[in-house]
Amino acid sequence: MEIVATEGLLSECLLQMTPAAVDRGVTLHYEPGAAAPIQAVRRRLAQVVNNLLSNAIQYNRPDGLVELSCALSGAGLLDIIVSDAGPGISFAELPRLFMPFNRMDAAAARIEGTGLGLTLSRELMTAMGGTLHGSSQEGVGSIFTASTPLAVPADAG
Known about the structure:
By secondary structure, this protein is an alpha+beta fold. It has one domain: 2-Layer Sandwich (Heat Shock Protein 90). The protein has helices at 6-24, 42-58, 117-127; strands spanning 2-4, 27-31, 38-40, 65-73, 77-84, 131-137, 141-149.
């Protein structure tokens, strides 16, 4: 584990994902908000953020929007939030979201993948002392939140 400058890492992830967004006609918006140094494995956290951004781009609508932001949450955590304006996921499908090899309707939509990205991302976040949660509303979009420990907890000083 190392101290990671969140804003720099997120900027790099956005830069890497920009070509895919442009190809699909999706706008990326970044609002650093409460970006703060965190305790994580930089390479693995970048893998998680890139996966979330990639999913948000792929599962979006034409001329859609993907927003990336940060917010302080309780217990000395920083939330990295990826939201999209895609078709969303039905309430009935939400429990299957983090199941391995579950591609939901991706095969029908001709979206490439194995169905392991969210499963692996959640495992990586857990291994780094954080969490990964998702919520969605059909017809509105999805929000994924990767919570990771702050390098210096807000209540430490």
